[in-house]
Amino acid sequence: MVQRQFFCSIMLGKVELLHNFVNCMDESFFNNTERKLIVSLTRDLLSLCGDVISRADRKMLVSSLNALDSESPHFRDGFGRNNLVHYLSSVRLLCQEIGVDRNMIVAMILTPLCRAGKLPVQDATAIWGEDVGVILAGLLKVEELYDRGVVGVSENFRNLLMTFAKDIRVIIIKIVECTVLMRDINHHPDEDRVRQTAFEAKSLYAPIAHRLGLYKIKGELEDLSLKYTNRDIYTRIARKLNETKASRDAYIEAFIAPVKAELEKQGLKFDIKGRTKSISSIWNKIQKQHNDLEHIYDLFAIRIIIDVPKERERSECWLAYSVVTDMYQPNPARLKDWLSIPKSNGYESLHITVRGPEAKWVEVQIRTRRMDEIAERGVAAHWKYKGIKSENDLDTWMNRVREIIETADSGPLDLMKDFKMDVYDNEVFVFTPKGDLYKLPLGASVLDFAFNIHSRIGCTCTGGKVNGRTRRINHKLRSGDTVEIMTSANQQPKLDWLNFVVTSKARSKIRQSINEQNSRVADLGKELLQRRCKNRKVELEEATLMKLIKKLGYKTVTDFYSEIGKEVLDPGEVINSYMALEDKNEPQAEARSAEEFTLQTTPEEESTGDVLVIGDNIKGVNYRMSKCCNPIYGDDVFGFISAEGVIKIHRKDCPNAANIRGRYPYRVISTRWSGRAGQQFVAMLHVVGHDDIGIITNISSIINKENNVSLRSIAIDSNDGIFSGHLSIGVSDIASLTNIIKKIKTVKGIKDVQRV
């Protein structure tokens, strides 16, 4: 009943009743300072809110709220502050610095009650509408995150905060609350907790406030953070600024007076003022320039704001520029012209640095009223040129918010509620049992998380404990999950893992591991086949073996040998198939002696006879270039008389040369080139390189530019960013081939070129 009277006094605006009520409250509920503060806050809120919080709204709050008890675990925070005072102070700051929004105010007042379990979010949504429910849910979700004890200082934590807070107004409220907290904890006895809070304010909330265009709040957070983390530096700079304030004000006045008079003479309507930079900004400059305070010349800046229609903005800004630079010497190296070409975030202004009285350098900013409002109020603020880095997606999102604010007819706060924070909807953020935070793509599994920690852990992962419950490796993770990975030394990556992992790291490591496994098994299979061939005294001819592998349906030699290593293929059956294929390709000739063997001479059909000298200059011999080694003019060659009586020309280093000479020495015939080149010969090249756009075009372009060289065919296979291909080219001799190989090797992305 007591609490209901209290909220009734607040919401119905009965200030006198509130004053009397607070004075009679027990000391455990309010102390004297808090009593006075609540009365003052209530008066301010009633004045600021006006008709935004209607009398009907106040009555509805009174009928639906159950006030906090002093015994509630959420009645006071970790610093011992009264949470009701904190939220009322936050509402006042929101109204003063950002704007008055009914739903934000209601959600902020209801938050401590929802946290205490006195008011379920569903009931608040039913009473106050879905919009209030969305804000409340976001605020409570962020509070849950803080209850877990996670320190919000990493970039991943910032993203997680935005993921949990589904409405931009939740982030604004948390920034406001952080500012109120930073104001309240000065000289708190728990110095470690104060420093941690200050570090969080500087690392988390100040950059977000900067991105949202809340510059005044951002500057205050940074100043207070410096104050609590390095009080000596803060005090020294603040004292120095106070000591020099009179002289600084006098200097600014002396600088402004002649400029103001000349601008008025030019007929411009304007405001001109000087502003001292924030303490944290000055400290950053001292560190960056390795100077002391006396040698930092830009402790303040002069800003000229011109009232002018948009169509005359540039001309009048440059007119003001000419007035200032005629009066004071400019530094051309420090001219920043964002009038002609505005910054990508919409910032427009003209910055110049001039030598003022006493030979001091002074920065002057020239802009119009419209430009100043955008730069000072809008989300598009000039945070980029201050050096704060951001992700491209967040940058795009912030620019969209700026556009919404600038084009809003009914006020930006009315439109921001429809702008949901979906930038990080395609990401999830999960914790290790120790509290470390990892960012993964949406749809990531336990296995993705294991590979993200370490490749070895991923390769041996058998599952995981998600929030204490055992899950399979393909279990999809959600933001906020705590994951513990389970491993086994007997586990190995499997091909079907590629069906559910989504991270590129996991996919590449799985493929790499499987390829390594296959390579080891293939080496074992190759060794097994060679040993069996040696036992049966069978010499494998590479060309025939390749035909057999293709006939058996294997795409690669590795796959073929892997099947042997896995004992899917029997080496004995492979040898039998090989010998049958060889007998089919090379039928045995009649049994006769070398003396009885004669050549069949026919009219020249397939050769002209003027390129090769065969035997003792035999004429009219039908010969062919062997396809297993593709000899070309200039290679060391020999002839082999086939069963059909056709001479096949082989290179002496042909893979089949040893087998031919060993089995059919009487059919080998000496062959040499005649010394008269002219026709083109086919050469096969094996090319390996990075799978880059245009690399094939570059190769073909080089070949086409060469005289007496032609590209006949090309076959390319690409896998994991690497391509492997075979080129069939026509060349006139070995010198041309060597030359074209050297030129292909110069193509960017080519790793190796070999003749095959």
How would you sum up this structure, described in words?
The protein is α+β, with helices and mostly antiparallel strands. It has 28 helices and 20 strands. The strands form five sheets. Strands 1, 2, 3, 4, 5 and 6 form a six-stranded mixed β-sheet that branches. A five-stranded mixed β-sheet has the order 12-16-14-15-13. β5 and β6 form a beta hairpin. α1 packs antiparallel against α2, α8 packs across α10 and α12 packs across α13. The N terminus is likely disordered.
Q: Which terms would index this structure?
A:
756 residues; alpha+beta; six-stranded mixed sheet; five-stranded mixed sheet; 28 helices; 15% strand
Low-confidence stretches: 1-28, 64-71, 378-393, 402-412, 587-609
Strand content: 15-25%
Helix % is: 40-55%
Query: If you average the pLDDT, what whole number results?
Result: 76
Broad structural category: alpha+beta
> How would a textbook summarize the main sheet?
6 strands, mixed
Distance between the termini: 95 Å
Rounded to an integer in angstroms, the radius of gyration calculated over CA atoms is: 41 Å
Cα shape: elongated
Number of strands: 20
Total DSSP helices = 28
